[in-house]
Design a protein that fits this description.
- The chain is an alpha/beta fold.
- The chain has two domains: 57 residues; 146 residues, inorganic pyrophosphatase (n-terminal core) (Alpha-Beta Complex), CATH 3.90.1640.
- It has nine helices and five strands, in the order αααααβαβαβαββα.
- The chain has a five-stranded parallel sheet, with helices on both faces.
- Helix 6 links the parallel strand 1 and strand 2.
- The relative contact order is 0.12.
């Protein structure tokens, strides 16, 4: 058992309190190494050491970037299938529909994905269901309508993981479906071309999949 490090070696003050340093000896040495190597103030170096950041991670911790923080997109189940289908749609100039949820993350995800696709000159329709009339997630009528309007690829964002019937309806109407979702699901249905979801029973990630898909395509 490692003994505590006492500040100024004070084990019992006038108030009968020990001045125990919140860092152990290893942490103190780590803080000194960070401060000396990078010229950080002692207080900042101690905060980093208290968070178990060593000198090899100090600079990236202070200056984080998406490149360093995002996981490898290929680590998501079905991510490669989703990317390949999207690349095919772009190369063949297919009409794409984005079916988003009506809340903030659904709307932002829809806008992000549509903007990304329009950068490549794609025709993209965003469909947000009526919260009162249609409820949450893809429904058969809306999915069939998008397919009948010419969308050969429908991408659901922030929804779709638990909507096999609606996705099947789109498939029977002639459209492929890629699901990008993060909600809990009990079973993995096989109706979609790809189902990317960190909460799949067979997946163990929990990251921003919409940004990851775009970054994976650019890569």
């Amino acid at each position: 058992m490692q003994l505590p490090y006492y500040c100024l070696n004070v084990k019992s003050s006038a108030c009968d309190q020990a001045w125990v340093d919140p860092l152990d000896i290893q942490g103190i040495n780590n803080a000194r190494a960070i401060s000396q190597k990078f010229g950080f103030p002692d207080q900042l170096a101690r905060v980093l050491a208290a968070r178990n950041v060593d000198e090899s991670e100090a600079v990236s911790f202070i200056n984080p970037t998406l490149r360093n923080l995002l996981p490898n997109p290929e680590s998501f189940t079905d991510m490669q299938c989703a990317a390949e289908r999207l690349v095919k749609a772009i190369m063949n100039r297919e009409k794409i529909a984005v079916f988003g949820d009506y809340d903030v993350d659904g709307a932002c995800s829809s806008a992000l994905l549509a903007r990304f696709l329009r950068y490549f000159g794609m025709t993209v329709k965003i469909y947000i269901p009526d919260r009162i009339v249609e409820g949450y997630g893809p429904n058969e009528q809306a999915m069939k309508m998008l397919a009948q309007e010419g969308a050969s690829l429908i991408i659901t964002v922030d929804c779709g993981a638990n909507s096999p019937d609606a996705i099947k309806a789109a498939r029977l109407a002639g459209a492929d479906v890629v699901v990008l979702d993060h909600h809990q699901m009990s079973d993995v249905h096989q109706e979609a071309v790809a189902l990317v979801n960190p909460n799949r029973p067979d997946d163990f990630l929990n990251k921003g999949i919409y940004v990851l898909l775009a970054s994976y395509l650019l890569h």
